[in-house]
Specification:
- With 401 residues, the chain is an alpha/beta fold.
- It has three domains: 96 residues, NAD(P)-binding Rossmann-like Domain (Rossmann fold); 68 residues, Dna Ligase, domain 1; 157 residues, ATP-grasp fold, B domain (D-amino Acid Aminotransferase, Chain A, domain 1).
- 35% of the residues lie in helices and 22% in strands.
- The protein has 15 helices and 15 strands.
């Protein structure tokens, strides 16, 4: 959609970067529901999320390059009120953080100090930080080439995990997996050779024993004084791809260990903005370990927090423009769930085929109050488009891109 030359809105807009992603679509819907005018940026205007009806306009630009900053600088002076930026992908966060001095004239940007952003988004630096401050992390080795990998193999215990230090756009384009469970040395070398060109470096990590339900997360918002104003704890029920992917069904829960560790980590760095920390419970050692942080952006779990009454994104918006923070910041544990229907059906089928899930168990697991990843009765086209795209791939795999 072509950008307009003047944007006169009665209140500050929310600028959602990367609407062409699940977090982007969810963020736009959450903010629009609060009657905040939403303007979105997208790299792929044909993405199913760009079929949404909640945005005032959608501007096409390369959100993964310097062109994003150029576009934001071009439209910045056209607003009558300073908008609030909501980057929704890691690349967006890094670009905005690195060029914040150029953008702060026109936008409210809520991020911690640049070095903190870089550290929390770089697995190598984050694991070093966690180890230095005695935060619980799995045993981790960092490798950037095959020679280094071969050197560390004798010290590894299999099975282990292999994952990129940062999921680059190339990585996301080629695989939905965040990590790979590696059973032996031969598979480790094979997987590394297959994926090494899409990541700058990898971590080989101790495998924390436990199924999908032992993965917990804390979503939070810290104000400009590094005070936590909203927190929400949830856990995965299933993920796609299975074992090492992204959540496709989750539920809110109470876990004070995860909450306290998350708050301690973010307080240590004087954090500001949206934060997320994932932890896993090791049934063998009966301890919790940090898996990874995500910072500066909404995550897939943002929608479940909103459905559970914790208004993370609206809290950030209000705090940015010096309006009173909403009352919805304390988790009430109402048992809300979050589901990505299309992926959860895939995941459930996998576990059914493995003999780990019955239809009755699946149906019971998805019952109750829910937030949806893509489905919306008032905004149906993104879901219908995603469904059709998936159906087309099944019917016409050679003609689908």
């Amino acid at each position: 959609m072509k950008a307009s030359t003047s944007r006169n809105h009665p209140i500050p807009c929310a600028i959602v970067i990367s609407i062409d992603s699940m977090p982007g679509l969810q963020a736009a819907r959450i903010l629009a529901k609060k009657e905040i005018p939403v303007i979105a940026l997208a790299k792929d205007p044909k993405h199913h999320s760009c079929r949404t009806n909640v945005c005032e306009e959608i501007i096409t630009t390369d959100t993964e390059s310097e062109q994003l900053i150029t576009t934001l600088a071009e439209i910045g002076p056209t607003f009558n009120h300073k908008p609030v930026l909501f980057p929704c992908q890691d690349t967006d966060v890094l670009l905005v953080s690195r060029r914040r001095k150029k953008l702060e004239e026109w936008y409210h940007i809520v991020l911690p100090e640049p070095d903190v952003v870089e550290m929390l988004m770089d697995k190598i630096r984050f694991y070093a930080f966690a180890e230095e401050h005695s935060f619980p992390i799995p045993k981790t080795r960092v490798i950037s080439n095959r020679e280094q990998l071969e050197e560390v193999i004798p010290s590894l215990v299999f099975p282990c995990l292999l994952k990129p230090t940062m999921r680059t756009p190339e990585w996301i384009e080629h695989t939905a997996s965040k990590a790979f469970i590696i059973p032996d040395e031969e598979e480790l070398l094979s997987v590394f050779d297959r994926y090494q060109e899409w990541a700058e470096a990898f971590v080989v990590q101790q495998l924390i024993e436990g199924d999908d339900t032992t993965l917990y997360s804390c979503n939070c918002y810290f104000d400009r004084n590094s005070i936590p104003k909203a927190t929400f704890i949830a856990r995965k029920i299933r993920q796609w791809p299975p074992r090492t992917g992204q959540s496709c069904l989750g539920e809110e829960c109470r876990n004070d260990v995860v909450l306290n560790v998350s708050l301690d980590v973010f307080r240590e760095v004087k954090f500001q903005g949206l934060g997320y920390l994932e932890m896993k419970y090791d049934k063998k050692s009966q301890k919790y370990y940090i898996i990874e942080p995500n910072i500066g952006r909404p995550t897939g779990r943002s929608a479940i927090a909103e459905a559970g009454g914790v208004e993370l994104l609206y809290t950030m918006y209000c705090d940015s423009i010096d309006e009173p923070i909403p009352d919805g910041s304390i988790q009430k544990y109402v048992g809300v769930k979050w589901i990505h229907i299309l992926r959860d059906v895939q995941s459930a089928f996998y576990y059914w085929r493995e003999g780990e899930l019955t239809f009755k168990q699946w149906w019971k697991s998805i019952r109750g109050k829910k937030a949806y990843a893509i489905l919306s009765w008032s905004d149906p086209l993104p879901f219908l488009s995603a469904f059709w795209q998936g159906f087309r791939i099944i019917l016409f795999p050679k003609n689908s891109t």
